[in-house]
Amino acid sequence: MEQSGTSTLLQGAVQDIASDVVSALRGGDHVRMSGTGAADDPEGHFALAAVRVLGADLLLPHVLFPTPPAPEALAVFRNTVEAFPPRADAAPTVRWSHWAMRRTLSRFDASSSGPLAGDEDAEPDAAWLDAATWQVLTHQLAVLAPLAVPGDDCAVARAARRRPVDVARGFVRAVRRRDWQQAAGAGRWLTLTEGVPDELGLEAGLDFVELMGGNDPRVALQVQAARVMRAAGALV
Amino acid sequence: MTDTRLMHTVGARALEWLWAHRDGFRLEPDVDPEVGFLERFKPVGELALICRVLFREGVAGSRQAELARKLLDHTWRHTLDGGRMLVRGQRIEPLSPIPFEVYLPYKELGYSEPEVERATVLYHRLDSWAALELDPTRRLGLSAFQRRFGLTPRMPETDIVGSTWLGRTPEPWTVSGHIAYDVTHTVFHLTDWGEHPDGLPPDIADYLATWLPVWIDDWLDLERWDLLGELLVVDACLPRPTLDERAWQGFAAAQQADGAMPAVRTMPEGEPDELFDMIYHPTLVAAFASVLATSRALSELTHAAS
After folding, report:
1. Percentage of residues in chain B with pLDDT exceeding 70?
2. CA separation (Å) from A8 to A13, A42, A50, A56?
3. ipTM greater than 0.90, yes or no?
4. Taking CB atoms and an 8 Å cutoff, what residues of chain B touch A200?
5. Which end of chain B is more exposed for a tag (fewer CB within 10 A), N or C?
6. How is chain A split into domains, by residue range?
7. Confidence of residue A124 (pLDDT cuts 50, 70, 90)
8. B111 CB contacts (<8 Å, ≥6 apart)?
9. Which residue, among B171, B212, B215, B245, would best test binding to A if mutated, counting the most A CBs under 10 Å from its CB?
């Protein structure tokens, strides 16, 4: 019982923070971090865990617009990076998600160790994506959607760019299965990718995903991120 | 690519079931006119179409070919009463295309009923027959059948393709079960039921090469065997079929030991006639997919060897 209660609280905190990010993406404002000060979380555990779930996207509005984040948001972000280092046997998506947070931190945090350097900051291996079926590739990319940022290259982004048709197939599969979060994440990658078949109708497709699944702020976040990137002429 | 024997076995078993349950191909001569005498012609017409594909492709074993011939003879002589039931259907509902559509594959296989042909030629002269409000895929099929019969379709097939869902190559994530059935039949008509893969316009062939694998993946996981079977036929109609191994293994595993293929998930229960009506179609589709995929697999081997 306690576990499921904890899980519900964490999900709630993730949703709250995702809503803040969506608001900032829509308004070009700071991420307010209203979800990190819950009265039933005096130690801030949920806040850190929730930020870890959301990953680098916490500061996405400041990457896309770009503006410096509020000091308290940056502090929570830094604390999260330090609190959840990946274990040696962590899954590739966990290692990459952590890497994405470190990269974002280095962008804004003068007190961090500076530009990514050294063993800890080296890119994890991405070979597993090249061997993945289009179904698995799309699922993994959707999990790693925070890495889909214009101009920021990495091995995961290169793997996505090499297989635009496969990711487009994965988008269709996710929509058919009403997995809106996966569809939104895949659509965000496709927004940054050349060679996507025109008939996919990506822009309307993302609007459809938002219409059907946008009540979930994590879905809305991906759709809005894609919209901002497209408006900024991310691809071309 | 899938083991050819696996694909072949699905069709061989399906034909055994169809032969064992041939009495299910039945008309209802005394049906209430409000229900419609022509309602029960569909299974017979589909059987004839698929048996014709089986003879055309020439990949069936001697047992399969014998069963197909016996099924055609049985349905022509008994179900259709030597073609007279088709005449009766035309008299009850003169402008319905159904009797003609059922008749055509039998004619192509050597059966004949001159009165059906006389009526067909007459109706073809009528503006009314050309004006029937059929949906575009059905209209495409009727024009294709008229061409095969030797008539010049009043609506050329090339003019109709653009009105079909597939002809517009729309957003692939909008496909539903109903749309998917329209897609499969558009492909059947454009390729003359798999005879001419080059009958698919290149943009449609490219579109299907990109998106068909997604739909196959989806309806395989949903265990919609009837639709999956039709999509496997479409795959075998493409210039470069994938003969997807995972899909074929799932499809074969869904088939019962006696050859019956459930339409959805597992076998339904019911009285024999009800059961026939629920599963004859997926079982026919299994025979169809099997013979086309086997033929394409053997062609690939021939190309590889030459």
Report:
1. 98
2. 9, 17, 11, 22
3. yes
4. 171-173
5. C
6. 1-124, 125-236
7. very high
8. B72, B76, B83
9. B171
